[in-house]
Specification:
single chain; 5% strand; 67% helix
Length: 226
């Protein structure tokens, strides 16, 4: 029961933080004219900020820190910090790709350089031991990847990141898909007793949901690459 409560609490914390952050980011973007400018490939016609990413990122990170502090008060930090060194590596990869994505939102980086940093961030994460060790194919069995786990995981992370980026062409679409995915994986993690994964997923779900309040049609802000 405590694991469920912690996960749900993290979702609500992230939700309310981002509900407060996004309006500030929108005002900031309008003040400095940081817009996703319309062109023939885009369906919007107005000047809409594309800095939703920092709101999602900051509310997610702040929530993880606050959740840890709450658990620290109740002497239950071991629930989250069983893999502390690996967490630092995971968040290093997340931070790198977010910062570079933010730079791309502001400066429009060329595709080869963007791909390089995506691969680098994915390599950092896989270096922390977050790997797809095997693939299970129905009726054929399980294939253990061995050393191929590293390139396969990197390709998967980069591929999914770009897939989400490519479908971000309709208000609420990319964010909605990410929210459903995070919630589903969070529930599965709770069922399996993986509290750390559950908290990360529920916090991410709350962060995205807070963003979606301002991204559903007509969108006041876009997610952006960050």
């Amino acid at each position: 029961m405590i694991q469920f409560s912690i996960a749900v609490l993290s979702a609500f914390i992230a939700l309310f933080i981002n509900l407060g952050l996004i309006p500030l980011i929108i005002k900031f973007a309008h003040h400095f004219q940081l817009y996703d400018l319309p062109d023939k490939r885009k369906i919007h016609t107005g000047l809409i900020p594309r800095l939703g990413g920092p709101g999602i990122f900051l509310s997610f990170i702040i929530t993880i820190i606050l959740t840890y502090l709450i658990l620290h008060i109740f002497n239950s930090t071991d629930l989250l910090m069983q893999s502390k060194p690996r967490l630092y590596i995971l968040f290093s990869g997340i931070f790198l790709i977010h910062i570079f994505g933010l730079y791309d939102d502001l400066r429009n980086v060329k595709a080869p350089l963007k791909l390089f940093f995506q691969i680098l961030a994915a390599a950092i994460v896989t270096g922390g031991g977050y790997l797809i060790h095997s693939l299970t194919i129905p009726y054929l069995g399980t294939i253990n990847l061995g050393l191929f786990a590293y390139p396969v995981t990197i390709i998967w992370i980069v591929g999914i990141s770009n897939a989400i980026n490519l479908i971000d062409g309709m208000d609420g679409l990319a964010g909605g898909i990410c929210a459903f995915a995070a919630l589903s994986m969070g529930i599965i993690a709770l069922i399996q007793g993986q509290i750390l994964i559950a908290v990360l997923c529920f916090a991410f779900f709350g962060s995205i949901t807070g963003f979606l309040f301002y991204n559903y049609p007509p969108a006041k802000i876009f997610m952006g690459d960050s």
